[in-house]
Amino acid sequence: MTGPAEGKLPLDAKVYLHSEELTNAHVYVHLKGYSRATVTHLDVEHPELNSLIPPEAKTFTWIVGIEDGIQIITEKGDKVQIIHPLLNKVLQRGEKTRTLVGGKFGGIFIGFRKREISKLEEIAEYI
Length: 127
Fold this sequence. Notes:
Elements: E1 8-11, E2 14-17, E3 20-21, E4 26-30, E5 41-45, E6 58-66, E7 69-73, E8 79-83, E9 96-104, E10 107-111, H1 114-124
Antiparallel strand pairs: 1-4, 2-3, 2-8, 4-5, 5-10, 6-7, 6-9, 7-8, 9-10
């Protein structure tokens, strides 16, 4: 599901693909139990992201904590940066995890591991 919905908390983040800002990109903390979410995850919504991971495709890829945010590094070496300081509560700068990233119509989602999910749920309180 793309766009605002119950249980999707907007995060005023900037999104970059290969160092170019994706204007009109939206980032949400999507809480478990709302709008069909079976687990809390991060939605990153912009149509250009479907060129990296097509809708309904899933892959395990590296997520790295960077200054003021996180970075997705795909198997092909594509890089997506999501810039918002609260994301460093999920992954600190230099910390990394290999986790599920899936495509959805109009963007991608990051299905973090259990330890990052609890941190993601904590930052939902700040939003």
